[in-house]
Structures are given as structure tokens and as C-alpha cells.
Amino acid sequence: MTRSASGPTVGVVGGGQLGRMLGEAAAPLGVELVVADPTPDCPAAPVVCDQLVGGFEDESTIRELAERTDVLTFEIELADPDALERVAEGTGTPVHPAPETLRTIQDKLVQKRRLAEAGVPVPEFRGVDTADELREACVELGYPAMLKARTGGYDGRGNVPVAGPEEVEAAMADIAGPAMVEEMVDFERELAVMGCLGDGERDTFPVTETIHREEILRESVAPARAGETVRERARDIALDVLDVMDGRGVFGIELFETSDDGILLNEIAPRPHNSGHWTIEGCHTSQFEQHIRAVVGEPLGTTGIRDPTVSANILGDIAERRDAVMDGEEDVLATERAHLHWYGKREVYELRKMGHITMTGDDPDNRDTLLSDVRELRDGLTFRG
């Protein structure tokens, strides 16, 4: 794609923190962003050229976005693949990753079936629509099991552990719709690989260890504290996943390292992902720059790591919604090799992702200390006043 004073323009469905970081990465490349988001003055708005106020599934908004840009992408799975497909056909503006990829990933059962058919190792799973079907599936898979809403779940929402038969009815009531149940994986650690599809290229960022509590990502460690053989196997499986995807862009590929050093696929996100935020300071090319390069059809950047890197999410620590005012950032800013990322959200509430801290080190064998340090900095932040 050629460069001019105005540069190529990318339209992004969604203007949350991922849209904000895409805007920050696009500017040095001479790429302009326009986002579409239903929240006026969304987090991405201060760092992009313009915002269209409209729903993620609103076809008229997506069409207007396409008419103003050279290529469309999305930073949230709530985008409507059917609307994206119709807009692409009607305007000639390409969409990356492809709407068909989004359609496959949006439904966790369809996603798992497609990957299993391609030979990607996945946990045992079943589609269930009723409590009786869940009960029957759990007899086959065993208790405990993990029940997941087929669509719409994120950050632990839409996931319900089922410890025994007495919890089946309540679990199905919590999901309140079509679901998928999986065997509960006995994992050593959770891993993630940011995969990249360019114009005839594919690559991966270094394998990352992800640490969750209450099914919400709290910290990431790169490179992962796993053996070299495990990391190589994780990368190979990530490349196999990319072979199933259509279109260009960055994909968040979440994995389990099992207790016997095996790798199982957990889930995929067809966009930059929280588990790849560390790449902003930790890699020669961030996941956000890589996504922009990919969707506009330019060569992918190197995915090499600069330094061992950890990151910690800054989450809301109050129960009630209130204006977002954070205290304690002075310690972060005064700490050598610590980097604060603020997402610009106007309201805070319990467990809402408000930002993250990244720390880089110089000793690959000292990641435990680095992780302890970033946790201490993160835990010193509060929204309680």
C-alpha cells in the first residue's frame, strides 16, 4: 500500500482499549484509524482520527466506516460477520480477518469442532442445550466439567464450572442458552501465543505464560516459564491454528500445558489480545503494530523478544460504578523499567480492566522476581480513594 500525506486509513469496529492501542501503534506507520463504537468519546477516541458512534452490529455504521477507509478490521467479537460480509461486497472495502473467521470463532462449539476436524488437539467437549443433555455429557466427560456459553462470553463471563450432578440445573440456568461443556483440564500452566497472518506470511510471538484468577487474566510472563520442548510444541500448534484461519491479522491463541507436557487448545480471539500486551515494550514489533501491518497488506515485523517481560492488569477494586480516579501511580512511574498503560475509561467497577503495567528485565532466569515486582506495583494502585 502506498503512502501519502494522509496515509492509508483503517476502519476498526470497536473503540475500546484495543482500539486505543491500535491507534497508538498506527500513527508512527503513517496509518490513520477511524473507529466505530456505541460509546461516545470511547477510549480510542483521543488517539484516532475520528469516531463514528454506532453499535458493533449496526450495518449502516459499518457501511459508513467502510466508505471512509481502505480496509476494515475489528477489535471485538461482537461485530456482526454477516453485516461485515455484506458491507465488503457492497463497498469493495476488504475485511481482515475474514468475516468467515469471525463467524467460526464467535461460536465456541463451532470453533472447537472446526479445530478438532483440522487435527488441532482440544479438550473433550460436547454441545448441550438442556440440563438433561448436560447431565448426560458429564457422565461421559466426568466431574468437574466446564460449561461455556456458545456465544458472547469473555473475561470469565459465560463460563460456569460444574462440580457435580447437584449443580447441573443451576449451571444451565446461569448460561440461559445454547452451551458447550468441556472436560476440566488438569493443566500445569496456561499459555498463549499471538499468531500473525500477513500477505503470504505467518509468524508467532514468543510463547507467553498467562496467570488467571476467577478466569480473568491477571499477569503474563514472557517467555513462558515452561520447557523448551513445551514452548516449541505450543508454537507448532499455534501455526496449525493459523492454517484454519482466513484473512490477515493477529490472533490470540490460548492454550493449556497439561501435567504430562502436552498442549491443548483453549480458545482463539481473532484480534490482538490481553495476553499480548507485553509485546509493546517486550518485542521489536508489538502485537498492535503487527495487526496494522497485516491488515493493510504490508510486510510483518520481526516478532523477536527484546527482554524478559511481565505485565499485570489493573482491575477495578470497587463494587459500585463511579468515576475512574486511580491513586498510587507515582510509584509505578518512579520505578525503573516499569511502564504504565492507562485505557482512558471514564467509569470503574469491580474487575473492569482499566489499564496494565509492563516491566522488562535483563535476566531470563529472574522472571519470578520480575513477576513479584510487577504485582507489588499493581497492588499499590486503587480506585477506592
Protein model, in words:
The chain is an alpha+beta fold. It folds into three domains: 9-95, Rossmann fold (3-Layer(aba) Sandwich); 124-183, Dna Ligase, domain 1, CATH 3.30.1490; 187-379, 2-Layer Sandwich (D-amino Acid Aminotransferase, Chain A, domain 1). It has helices spanning 17-26, 59-67, 81-91, 99-106, 108-117, 131-141, 168-175, 228-244, 279-282, 287-295, 329-333, 367-379, and strands spanning 9-13, 32-37, 50-53, 71-74, 125-128, 145-149, 159-162, 179-183, 187-197, 202-204, 208-213, 216-222, 249-258, 263-269, 309-315, 322-323, 338-342, 347-348, 353-360. Strands 9, 10, 11, 12, 13, 14, 15, 17 and 19 form a nine-stranded antiparallel β-sheet that branches. The chain has a four-stranded parallel β-sheet with strand order 3-2-1-4, sandwiched between helices. Strands 5-8-6-7 form a four-stranded antiparallel β-sheet, sandwiched between helices. A hairpin with a 4-residue loop joins strand 9 and strand 10. It starts with 8 loop residues before the first strand and ends in a 6-residue tail after the last helix. The mean pLDDT is 95.
Rg over CA atoms:
20 Å
| Low-pLDDT windows of residues | none
* CATH class value of the largest domain: Alpha Beta
Figure out the total of helices. Answer: 12
Distance between the termini: 49 Å
CATH superfamily of the largest domain: ATP-grasp fold, B domain
The CATH topology of the largest domain = D-amino Acid Aminotransferase, Chain A, domain 1
